[in-house]
Write a structure and sequence with these properties.
12 helices; single chain; mainly alpha; 329 residues; globular
Length: 329
């Protein structure tokens, strides 16, 4: 099917966007499937040891949503290429799943930054948890509404126009939605700061610092895509926006999976916690060595007391030297 998809002579009948985008989406679909497979491997391997990787479990669900989205996209492209007919509602649900995946990934970043699975204090602030759900549901719901009312409806009523692509965030309601990113970024930084301030474990403080610095860029890059989409030529807007969004998400998906991949000699499963915890681990190793030495000393004492040869030595040392004198006389 893939060879037919690429080699079909009908592919020459579509415009340049339709020539490039299906190939790009197919490549990223393969990448997402690979990441999903790696995530499942981590999850199953840790389950067999009675340990859960909650961050990886949630992340695999996000990946699955993106995979479904791209399968829907490619299904629509196959229909366009082979039958010259767009399955408009398949494209609709593909975009809705894509928006859902972005929203759930946003939620994952928020709760990780607040110490989920890494701090006993996570969830004690009820107001913070309510804001997490409110922000996520608002972003997903408003994005769905903007896409359906200002993009899908326009494209549905002008199907014959090949250059009618509209990026849903590059609209007037989309600009209002993007302005919320400033509030979300502020909330992300403030919540992470609270966790960083209250955390006493040095390794965890380093972990949350690097996590904040890295994934702050994910929040900032999406508004940059909107700016690019606003100023580029409409004839190339579709492919540029699609490639940029997929590239940004894929990079940060790989980074997240790398940072929180489980270490098999570390029950908590955080690579950075293991990496930054060298001082603590060395201290624990020293304590274990001291305990081993104490146990060894106790063992030596016990074994010497049970050895009959060692019992004769103190008896000879404590014996009266007088008999020796008598024998010499």
């Amino acid at each position: 099917m893939i060879e037919e998809f690429y080699n079909s002579s009908e592919l020459n009948d579509v415009n340049s966007d339709e020539n490039v985008i299906p190939r790009v989406q197919l490549i990223f679909l393969c990448v997402f499937v690979g990441l999903f497979g790696v995530s499942l491997y981590y999850i199953i391997s840790r389950w067999s040891n009675g340990i859960r990787c909650q961050i990886i479990e949630y992340f695999s669900a996000v990946l699955l949503i993106f995979i479904i989205s791209h399968i829907l996209f490619l299904t629509n492209w196959l229909s366009i290429i082979h039958f010259s007919k767009e399955i408009i509602y398949v494209e609709l649900f593909g975009n809705l799943f894509y928006i859902l995946g972005n929203g759930l990934f946003l939620f994952l970043l928020l709760i990780i930054g607040q110490g989920w699975t890494n701090s006993t204090q996570y969830g004690t602030n009820v107001f913070q948890r309510i804001l997490n759900y409110l922000i996520t549901l608002s972003m997903i719901g408003l994005s769905w509404t903007i896409y359906i009312m200002f993009v899908f409806d326009v494209e549905f009523n002008s199907i014959t126009n090949n250059n009618n692509y509209i990026y849903y965030l590059d609209t007037t309601p989309g600009y209002i939605l993007v302005s919320l990113y400033g509030i979300i970024v502020g909330f992300f930084l403030f919540s992470n700061h609270l966790y960083y301030r209250d955390e006493i474990d040095v390794s965890k403080k380093k972990l949350i610092f690097i996590f904040t610095v890295v994934f702050l860029n994910w929040f900032l890059l999406h508004p940059i895509v909107i700016i690019v989409a606003h100023f580029i030529d409409p004839y190339i807007k579709y492919r540029v926006v699609t490639i940029l969004n997929l590239l940004i998400n894929t990079i940060f998906f790989i980074v997240l999976l790398f940072l929180f991949r489980p270490k098999y000699n570390h029950n908590h499963g955080h690579f950075l916690s293991q990496f930054f915890g060298n001082n603590n681990s060395q201290h624990d190793d020293n304590d274990e060595e001291e305990d081993d030495e104490e146990d060894a000393d106790d063992y030596n004492v016990a074994s010497s007391s049970n050895n009959p040869k060692n019992e004769k030595k103190p008896l000879l040392q404590q014996s009266d030297p007088t008999p020796t004198i008598e024998i010499s006389q």
